[in-house]
Hints:
Order of helices and strands of chain A: EHHHHHHHHEH
Structural class of chain B: mainly alpha
Protein name (chain B): Peripherin-2
Shape of chain A: elongated
Largest sheet of chain A: 2 strands, antiparallel
Shape of chain B: elongated
Number of strands of chain A: 2
InterPro entries (chain B): Peripherin/rom-1, Peripherin/rom-1_CS, Peripherin_LEL, Tetraspanin/Peripherin, Tetraspanin_EC2_sf
Strand content of chain B: under 5%
Number of helices of chain A: 9
Oligomer: heterodimer
Radius of gyration of chain A: 36 Å
Number of domains of chain B: 2
Keywords (chain B): Cell adhesion, Disulfide bond, Glycoprotein, Membrane, Transmembrane, Transmembrane helix
Subcellular location (chain B): Membrane
Structural class of chain A: mainly alpha
Radius of gyration of chain B: 30 Å
Membrane topology (chain B): Multi-pass membrane protein
Number of helices of chain B: 6
Number of domains of chain A: 2
Number of strands of chain B: 0
Amino acid sequence: MAVGKITFTKTEREKLAEVLWLLNWISVVTGAILFGLGLFLKIEIQKWQEVMSEQGILYVPHMLITTGLAACGINYLGSKICLDCADTNKFLRWKLVMMPYIVCTFFFTACVLAGALMCYSVRSQLEESLYLGLRNTMRFYKDTDTPGRCYLKKTLDLLQIQFQCCGNADYRDWFQIQWVSNRYLDMTDSAVVDRVRSNVDGKYLMDSVPFSCCSTLSSRPCIQHNLSNPAAHAHYDEQSQQLNLWRRGCQQALLDHYTGIMQSIGLTVLLIWLFEVLLVLTGVRYLQTAMENVIRLGDPESESEGWILENSLAETACYNFNIIKNLGKCYQVDDDPNINVPTAAADREVPSHQVRVNVAS
Amino acid sequence: MPFMSLKFNLQKRVKLAQGLWMLYWLAVIVGIIIFSLGIFFKIELRKRSEIMDNNESHLVPNLLILLGMLSCGLNAFGGKLCHESLDPQKFSKMKPMLKPYMLLSCGFNALLLLLVLLCFLMQFAVYLTLAEGLKNAIRFYKDTDTPGRCFMKRTLDMTQIEFRCCGNNNFRDWFEVQWISNRYLDMSNDVVKDRVLSNVEGKYLMDSVPFSCCNPGSPRPCIQHHLTNNSAHYDYDHRIEELNIWNRGCHQAVFSYYSSIMNSIGALLICTIILEVRLHTGLHHRPLQPVGM
């Protein structure tokens, strides 16, 4: 028994073909939108790629870009096919292409769904990548004379200013690394030498932060140094301390930023997927089966039936599974009826008769 | 032969009318662009009115908004006129409206020319307002507890970060004002007391700048305090150090931003005037011999 059987008259078939032509053109536009979204995400990730330890999450925008391009191509072909389907003669041209086209559309919609789900699942990988990347960037903040790292200071300063964040998880991360290069430390000064010697690794650590951690919302000029000792500054009370620096960590700030972008993109892609499956794919399948049935019946004016699956779901699955099972099998002697297999009956000789031929004299 | 020549004229006139109709709708789109540019410019002036003493002139954006709407209306009507000149019956109804419309269009073109002149002349007003406004903004930087001025610090910090500038004309403007409020000074400290007493007006002046003057592109951590004292910092010479803080003054930076906006708007308005003149000469020559007669 067929799944989703509907009967179509000739006018209904033509109308379906027209509507599908329009829907396919709309799908070309949504494919372009998918492509644009993928490109936008790629650019956003590459803007701050220096503070990420690996570029693994780039597979999400790449998937969106390729799926978008595939959508444009497949749906453009689909619009041409659907336009021709209104007429039975023109349909014959596309008859052999229809099934592969529907299978391709089915796989490509699966890719669209995969792309949407990827957008939501990439958070933990991003979190790890940002944590390691920011830790390394902060460690190399002072290395403005080392090739390959000279712009890390500028990048991190601009990041902290733009996203209003400080440090990896907290501003105290800056207390654990040496962010002032030895080139700018006076090693003849006893205070400097003491501080370096008191540290196990020989690093010059202080309870200070760079200027980019300063909050513009503070009502007093920024206090960057001697942060662990509030008494060192005049009238430095609890409220001043809260507003003085940015409180958020840059890992959290960037994570929120990218998660927000990817959630919006994921939602849009899901909507596009729903549109493709419910309207375009189903419509094209109905049109294909209806047109094939018309040709089978032989009368272009008659009604025909369209369906999604010819037999029930279980039977179709079995049938396809058998096809795949037999694909690899070699040629079997028992099955082919065309081969003349010698049997016992063929041993008997058939006597030949003389045939009279009248020859005109 | 006479029949052929009439037919040729008819086709040519239809083509001319259609071309003119399309140009009219292009002019409507240009009118919408002028309207939105007026709104954009108004918002930009509002955003930074605090560093312009809140008395910047909104004449240019208001005129842009008005002329944008007027342009849309006039050009839509002109397009309708063009469309109806193809039909002799409708055209005879429209004919009495033609002369007032042409007069209105001439007036509109004169207003556009005036606005172009204003775009280039009002830049002087912006220049003077900015100079005065920034001077006051630097003076009131420390007054975060005074109503009406509590956000001056935030605005000036964000302006210096956004426009990559420091001070009014250069960073030395910060040396002449007290930008740390007395609330945050330890008056029991001798150093502080000496510095306040050594100044005629009792102001706490220092050769330091706020953090928003710092240049993120500098290879060394930002030096904000004791800028003119080379011995206060290791390996530092204030005469050759260029990357530490922004060298440009905010007056020049913000003025060049507004100047570029006004110059672009002026250039667009000149193109609009040329388009409008072309349209009106086209319409003027058309109705003398309407299509179909």
